[in-house]
Amino acid sequence: DLQIGFYNTSCPTAESLVQQAVAAAFANNSGIAAGLIRLHFHDCFVRGCDASVLLDSTANNTAEKDAPPNNPSLRGFEVIAAAKSAVEAACPKTVSCADIVAFAARDSATLAGNISYQVPSGRRDGNVSLASEANANIPSPLFNATQLINSFAGKNLTTDEMVTLSGAHSIGVAHCSSFLNRIYNFSNTSDVDPTLSSAYADLLKNKCPSNSTRFTPITVSLDIITPTVLDNRYYTGVELTLGLLTSDQALVTEANLSAAVQDNANNSATWASKFAQAMVKMGLIEVLTGTQGEIRTNCSVVNSAS
Known about the structure:
Blueprint: H1 14-28, H2 32-44, H3 77-90, H4 97-113, H5 131-137, H6 145-153, H7 159-166, E1 173-175, H8 180-183, H9 198-207, E2 219-221, H10 233-239, H11 246-249, H12 255-266, H13 268-282
Antiparallel strand pairs: 1-2
Helix pairs in contact: 1-3, 1-4, 2-4, 7-12, 7-13, 10-12
Cofactor: Ca(2+); heme b
EC number: 1.11.1.7
InterPro entries: Haem_peroxidase (IPR002016), Haem_peroxidase_sf (IPR010255), Peroxidase_pln (IPR000823), Peroxidases_AS (IPR019794), Peroxidases_heam-ligand_BS (IPR019793), Secretory_peroxidase (IPR033905)
């Protein structure tokens, strides 16, 4: 089992060294907070929170980071690498890359939203990373309510936790390709998704060419109200048909989800507390502990057998 303060004796400075690396990156670019929270999410949904998302592809294997849900949009790798090298200098071969990712996500929530919580640690690093598993397990921005509920349920997260964690879209950006379906050729009867604010759709069309791909370097803030603050305004936007992705709008297509959205929109402190708890629970998905896996020395490659 994971425990809070797992490194208190073996590496007492571990969490503060990670926090310093994240804070330095955040001071340079506040958008990195969204990237680091997403990195933890995409790690945990594929083989559990085992840092498999950090492994590089090899000559005979395409790793998770090179799968379409992660490439080229996933970011924060260099922050994890900087944190890891600081931690290795202080305590060699002690702190896992998986724990560093979990700590960095928490530090990001604190910096972007003043949401602080303790992270149980003791995760071990996995040795397998497959692009096919990222494709199969990471929920798509095109998912509807049922697909989202099922995706999260498959990772032992409740429907309410799914709605709560969607609030991470209160910060960060999306590439045009992830919402193009809503602004061009939506259906036979409508060019634009009728559940998207038409004024907002016009603005988005102005920004995103219809031939955008995931490699087109144009991005839009996920939360138009407070784009750089991790808060509950995301839910207000979703209620006002300003949710950017199909998967954001999906949260108001079913009564029980809508009720949760309204609850979160109306209670910022309650949402923040639920978000912290849901992040902790997400960080427990299928973790490796004890002698399982390894403590990777370099987060992007498995340790050599030597």
